[in-house]
Amino acid sequence: MDNYNYDNYDSPQSSSSGSGEPPMRPGADGPFPGPGPATVAAEGAHTGRPAGGPMSPHGPQNTQGVPTLHRTESSLSPTGAPGASGTQGPPGEQSPGIVCEQVSRSFGSVHAVRDLSFTAPRGAVTALVGPNGSGKSTLMLMLASLLAPQRGRVLINGVDPSQDSAAVRTTVGWMPDQFGAWDSLRVAEVLEVMGRAYFLPTDKVRARVNELLTLMDLVPLAQQPAHVLSRGQKQRLGLARALVHGPQVLILDEPASGLDPASRRRLLRVVRQVAEHGATVLVSSHILTELEEMADHVVFLDAGHVVDSSSVRELATRPRPWRIESLNATALSRALGELGVRHHGVVDPAHTTGGHAEAVVDLPDESTAAKLLRDLAAKEAAVVTFGPATGRLEAAYLASEAASREGAL
């Protein structure tokens, strides 16, 4: 039986050399399996923006499950305005929905974003991960055309916001980390105002509002003043507001903040289905376990630039800790010793929350983990639980230099 000595194993390398371009997601149906190209409709398209209009970052429970969402003409289907992306081929032939090329932005002596480059593909969710102050919110403001880069170039569906911000804003749904609400408007009225600001046809505004109220479980709150909502309720309204015009690009800054567990599950499902309908989704969050369930790709930021990028699937080939629980501390310790597995000690059941003996081992990848589980069973180690001690995103982030700095967590 092989000895588990990892002194000389080769740590898998990042798929990125700093460009921030994630690899394509593998699959039999092409790089991004889904329902096919997004439909771009000109109806209701708007080329101007009134003051305080839809892209302003701030405005002046029921117990039912998440509703079944249909792919045809649903409230999640991208519409937007025609432009550089108006003719779309199969997903594998499309240009990325978001492109950043050596983008920089400073505020006085503070360099928020520095020489940052990455792409976010259509029909997929791309996650931004980084410590506080790494430039995530500044980057998102530039992508939403609310802040101009000082150097470099941003493309949204092939359009540079600095050249045609109105065209970009018709195709982008933006959800900031803080929801601003007009004191005089009720929840349904907020969505109605946003629909009219995007020049949706009058006869379709009410239907659209009703769709989104149902989608985000806001029907019981429809006639409540928006400014009295709880933090989590405002987050749900904020996502509904971002979806009102069927954006082709959806940008979400900390969307799960303040949400209860059921609302978080709803958010995850809605975001996944938006991507499956062909939209480009970019989301930032510090809740890495839920971000891992939501995302296809991840871009790690630190000090304003990209330090790593990967598909979430590829992260399975990287090292991370695994937790083993056993009914018998002696049997587990003996088996690990005989197999030559280095570990951080076997904890007695009296000192664990689960009442089992526990050990944590560092393994290079999931294939090695599967082999170890098989060998522990052969050694009669009485294993009852075997799994990652951390998620893929968390392990990758905690292994970075950014996470080790004081104040990064």
What report would you give on this structure?
With 409 residues, this protein is an alpha/beta fold. The protein has helices spanning 136-143, 165-171, 187-197, 202-215, 231-243, 261-276, 288-294, 329-339, 366-378, 392-398, 401-404, and strands spanning 98-107, 110-120, 124-129, 151-156, 172-175, 249-253, 280-284, 297-302, 305-311, 320-326, 357-363, 383-388. The protein has a six-stranded mixed β-sheet, with helices on both faces. A three-stranded antiparallel β-sheet has the order 2-1-4, covered by helices on one side. A hairpin with a 2-residue loop joins strand 8 (297-302) and strand 9. The protein folds into two domains: 91-311, 3-Layer(aba) Sandwich (Rossmann fold); 316-404, Alpha-Beta Plaits. It has eleven helices and twelve strands.
Query: Proportion of β residues?
Result: 15-25%
User: What integer value in Å does the Rg equal?
Assistant: 24 Å
Gross morphology is globular
The averaged pLDDT comes out at: 80
Count of distinct structural domains = 2
Q: Which runs of at least 5 residues are low in confidence (pLDDT < 50)?
A: 5-73, 80-92
CATH H level, superfamily name of the largest domain: P-loop containing nucleotide triphosphate hydrolases
The CATH class of the largest domain is identified as Alpha Beta
CATH topology of the largest domain: Rossmann fold
Distance between the termini: 40 Å
Strand order of the largest sheet: 5-6-7-3-8-9
**Main sheet: strands, sense, barrel:** 6 strands, mixed
Number of alpha- plus pi-helical segments: 11
